Amino acid sequence: MLRAEEPLVFTPESMSGSSQTTIKPPSLMRYLVRLVTRPGGLVLDPFMGSGSTGMACVSEGFDFVGIDITPEYVEIANARIAAVQK
């Protein structure tokens, strides 16, 4: 049991060995960004992962800012988003 004086903290070291398990279908993400974002709006994804939200934003004409702590996923996301921009 956690007590108030024992905070639950996640660090890159404590998460080592984990894999990206929440990849979302691009079609679902396109629907969701259209549903919740005003035309010409900006979407912030502070846990970008492999970039599904960014791909959806670019496809639908929204501006996008993505952040992720894992450099490997940033590279993957950048490549996936760039492929949609072409």
Automatic annotation (TrEMBL):
Name the UniProt record assigns to this protein: DNA methylase N-4/N-6 domain-containing protein
Q: Where is the composition biased (Polar residues)?
A: 13-23
What are the protein's UniProt keywords?
A: Methyltransferase, Transferase
- What organism does the record attribute this protein to? Candidatus Gottesmanbacteria bacterium GW2011_GWB1_49_7
Coiled coil regions, renumbered to chain: none
Q: What is a single Pfam family found in this protein's UniProt entry? A: N6_N4_Mtase
**Residue ranges of region Disordered?**
1-23
The UniProt entry's GO biological process terms, in alphabetical order, are: methylation
Q: Where is each DNA methylase N-4/N-6 domain found? A: 19-78
